[in-house]
Specification:
This is 4a-hydroxytetrahydrobiopterin dehydratase. It comes from Bombyx mori (Silk moth). Pfam families: Pterin_4a (PF01329). Its EC number is 4.2.1.96. One of its GO terms (biological process) is tetrahydrobiopterin biosynthetic process. The protein contains five helices and six strands, in the order ββαααββαββα. 40% of the residues lie in helices and 17% in strands. It is globular. It has 156 residues and is of the alpha+beta class. It has helices at residues 16-23, 39-49, 65-77, 98-115, 142-154, and strands spanning 6-9, 12-15, 81-82, 89-94, 120-124, 127-132. The protein has a domain at 65-154: 2-Layer Sandwich (Gyrase A, domain 2). The strands form two sheets. It has a four-stranded antiparallel sheet with strand order 3-4-6-5, covered by helices on one side. A two-stranded antiparallel ribbon has the order 1-2.
Length: 156
């Protein structure tokens, strides 16, 4: 091969034939077909495979007065507070750094997904403010007690 049939491209020395193969393929690439999706059918399929579909989820019961007295007491002693403006409990956690805070949130998030019960939380650097309440009963439930107890046990 002489210099006239060689071309330098992308840092490699390529022959004219090699360039033709790379840039002019024998079978041109066809554009992808557009497919119309029936959105309602897709939604039905998604709901049927979702582990948290409403038909399979157990509804929480609001804590009665006796349960509030017995089950909230240990949480209130560990720093949880009852919110004044609604039936919810809150607590602020403080960690050494952001990585510890994020690790704690990740552990809680895994339980929250499993329970299908998600906390309201606000995180800045090493501080985490958590509020727990069950929206389906518009107040505190055993889910909140379980979540708060889990947080207390996993807090370093």
């Amino acid at each position: 091969m002489n210099k006239t049939t060689m071309t330098f491209a992308n840092g490699y020395l390529l022959s004219a034939r090699s360039i033709a193969i790379h840039f002019h393929p024998a079978r041109p690439v066809r554009p992808a077909r557009t497919v119309a999706i029936n959105r309602s059918l897709a939604a039905v399929r998604y709901a049927s495979v979702s582990s948290t579909s409403p038909s399979k989820r157990k509804m929480a019961d609001k804590l009665n007065q006796e349960e509030r007295t017995t089950e909230l007491k240990p949480l209130l002693e560990s720093g949880w507070k009852i919110q004044s403006n609604r039936d919810a409990i809150e607590k602020e956690f403080q960690f050494k750094n952001f990585n510890e805070a994020f690790g704690f949130m990740t552990r809680v998030a895994l339980l929250a997904e499993k329970m299908d019960h998600h906390p309201e939380w606000f995180n800045v650097y090493n501080k985490l403010q958590v509020t727990l309440s069950s929206h389906d009963v518009n107040g505190l439930s055993k889910r909140d007690i379980k979540m708060a107890s889990f947080m207390d046990k996993n807090y370093n």
